[in-house]
Each structure stands twice: as C-alpha cells, then as structure tokens.
C-alpha cells in the first residue's frame, strides 16, 4: 500500500514559487538615463506581473554592456532591459545572442535604431518598461562579423541593425560628441560635410554567398538587418529583420554632384514614392542610378586595399582591412507589445 506523500512545507512552497517566477535585469548607461525614474516604473510593472525583484547593472567605459549582461544571465535573468544608446543595445544583444533570455529596449540615445525599426516607443519610459514586462518575444536575425583590424588583430562582433565600411563609418568617426549631445542627430550633418572633403573612394574585393570574387570601387558599403534610419530615412527599403538575409547597398558617386542623386533616391523614392501605389508605378518607369547598387545575401566577405573605417550599429569600431559577415537567423528575442 502506498503512503500519501507529506505536504510541502510553507518554506518549500515559497521557494518553488520564487524559482517559477521570471526575473528581469536592467543594464543601464548611467550617463544617459535616470535610474530613479527607471526603478519607479519597474517596481510597478514588476509587481503587476508577479516577477522577482529586478536586478540592476551599470555599464562603464571598461564594460559597455556585454560583461554585466553575462552577470545578469548567471544571476537568472529572463529578460534584460537595455537602457542606453545604440551601443548599449548592441553590447547587450551580443551577450544575449543564442540564449533563452529576451532583450527589452528602453531607448535613451540619439539613434535608437533597433527600437525605431521595430516601431517601438522612442520617448516614453513607462511604455517601454511596460513592454518589457507585459509584452511578447519576437525573434529577430543577428548579423555576426569577423573583423581583421589594421594592426593584424581579429575580433568577432554582432550587430542588430547595420554595419558599414568606408564613408559611412568615417562619418561616425568624425562626429563631434559634444555637438551630438547638444543637437542630437543633426551633429551627423556636420560630420558628413567634413567627411566629404576628402576623396573617400576605396577599392574592394568581395564574395557574396560564395558566388566568386568580384571587385568594386565604392565610397561605402553597408550591410543591413533592417533599413530605417533616424529622420525617417529608408536606406534599405526591402530589408526585413527576420528573413535570414542581409540587404546590402554600395554608394558609388564619381563626382560630388552625384550625392544629390543618391539623396533623392533615399529620400524621394524610398521615403515617398514607395509608400503609395501611384508612386510605385512611377518608380517602375524610373531608371536605376548607377551610383546606388543594391544586393542581397546571407554571407559577405570583403577585403580592402587599405584600412578603412568600420562601424557597427552607429558606433565606430576602428580601422579594418577585411570582414566576413553572416546572418545568424532568429538568434535574438526582443520584447514587443503583445
């Protein structure tokens, strides 16, 4: 005859309830966010969903987010909320890639590129935190890139929005940080003007999806996981964040006047005409300009004749002489509104 099992003690029942509840962690840039405001909102939403006490980790110059995110995962975090700029988001995403934990977004920078492309709230702290606690997971692709640096060293990094070689990255390297704090995204206009003073053309050899080596002369080449920039500029109109491929664009002006055609392509065609049926009909009869070349693929290898600036999600990485980039499909879960 079997004997009835004894009921669990109140302490054991509480311990089991604690382990079954979720835990959130906030990885925050103390320069860009108010921890007091974050904690006030988090406390309310955490209580509403019945989660454990939220963990908090500050980023630093030495650790811009990856190390403390790893600590949060070791402590049992199910959702890690990145509270900072695009650099904070990228570093947190890099540590979360391939794990079961989800990324919550609390946009606090100038670009807010990932939140912008996912059509999330950009300027409402409580709404963003509510999404982290009450939302659902959306799997997205991640770009992975092996970088051969100018000094011969090698790095492996990830990006969630875009990576760029050449003028695109040079512009970011030339951005005045003090001006950026005062006027935000408009600081990049100043950087563009200063970057265009030089001859920015570069010779590259590339191989897209193993189709063979080709050569190209270009000013910049950008790999996109998604296509929207601040100012509602649609650089890569066909990009989808979960389709398993990169959308790639090479900008190849021969003269400074060619930049006008590129600008019209991005602002007028991509941003205006493409959004209506009539506009798309007009585009069907508009010849493609040779200064803008679009490509698609899941793996791109690029080798340069000379070191060039390289950027990841709007942050300058330094000078690179070669990269190998590929898509890691649906490798990151991001919290979005239910």
TrEMBL record:
InterPro entries: ATP-NAD_kinase_N, Diacylglycerol_kinase_cat_dom, Lipid_Phosphate_FormReg, NAD/diacylglycerol_kinase_sf, YegS/DAGK_C. One of its GO terms (molecular function) is kinase activity. The keyword Lipid biosynthesis applies. The keyword Membrane does not apply. Residues 19-149 form the DAGKc domain. Its cofactor is Mg(2+). Keywords: ATP-binding, Kinase, Lipid biosynthesis, Lipid metabolism, Nucleotide-binding, Phospholipid biosynthesis, Phospholipid metabolism, Transferase. PANTHER family: LIPID KINASE YEGS (PTHR12358:SF106), SPHINGOSINE KINASE (PTHR12358). Belongs to the diacylglycerol/lipid kinase family. This is Sphingosine kinase. The lineage of its organism: Bacteria, Bacillati, Actinomycetota, Actinomycetes, Micrococcales.
